Amino acid sequence: MKSAMVRHLLCATVAAFGFLGSGLAAAQATPEVRVVELLKKAQEAARSTDYAGVFSYQDDGTMQSSRITHLVDGTGERERLEVLDGRPREFIRHNETLHCLVPDKELVLVEQARTDRFPGLFLGDTGHIVNHYRFTLEPETSRVAGRECQVVNVDPRSTDRYGYRFCVDSQTQLLVKAQTLEGDVLVDEIAFTFLQVGKQVSPDGLRSQWNFSGWKQVRVPTQQIDVAALGWRVHNPAGFQFANQISRPMKSGQSVKHLVLSDGLAVISVFIESYDDARAARNVIKGPSRKGAINVYSTRIGDSWVTALGAVPVKTLQAVAEQTQYVAPAPANTR
After folding, report:
1. Is 48 exposed, middle or buried (0-12, 13-18, 19+ CB in 10 A)?
2. Which of 216, 250, 274 is the last residue of a domain?
3. C-alpha to C-alpha distances, 214 to 103, 106, 107, 137, 204, nearest whole angstrom
4. pLDDT digits over 11-28, tens only?
5. Residues 40 and 180 reside in one and the same domain
6. Could you tell me if 157 and 134 are in contact, meaning their C-beta atoms sit under 8 angstroms apart?
7. Half-sphere exposure of 4 (CA within 13 A, CB side)
């Protein structure tokens, strides 16, 4: 079930937007800040550029390829992403609405889109990101998918995060390659193997290969929540803030709380559910596990089962899960 929860993150999207804040004011335009500004342009290019291509994601000895078409017209952003390996999946996005097509079940899941999906990279507040990472630009350019790109190294200032290496297209500022690093060890990599931009991109790429007009359509219901008001004291690692707090239903009829923490680059998801529901659904085991590049840490807190997962060191997830507390809120005053 843990692996299913990890896979669900591909469809479980969050409405959160990352823009560089006042912490990167022009008066502080050091060489490091100018590198972050380059990544800011890459984030904007992911939303405003017409592009189409194929990219591959690799982790833990596995590889998955996807085809993407992204166009901006008078109605905003339109995007279609087709998973090319394994069970067929398509993701069709119009602005912030995402349709996840599941052909083998003739099902369409409708949710909200996240902004950090490749070639996007930022999520949440990034105003203090330079306090937690060092940003350097390599003097020599590289090439990805036949295109010249600038290489940005992002090194964590503490051991509770991974590092990154980004390649930003020299012409369009589009992110064309992203690597996650634990020291010198490659954790995962996502990169274009073929890329077209501008007038080369045909609107035909937005057309689904499936006729899903008669498929069952399910709008995944979510509700914004305030976990602190519900009694939860969730441990936030230094620099991590809430990007979103929602509640979503489960098959049991109960709900699971889904919290997203981010420092702008790294993302941690925290799921809080009934311990009995978790035990009935799967063989719950306390402690760490791993799914590819995603570390997972689970523990029991009272009558709840807490699972923290993300592409961060497992000790960071352990701190999130084990240091989270529940304090029953005081009864409301009915007088």
Report:
1. middle
2. 216
3. 12, 8, 9, 50, 22
4. 443 323 233 333 444 445
5. yes
6. yes
7. 4
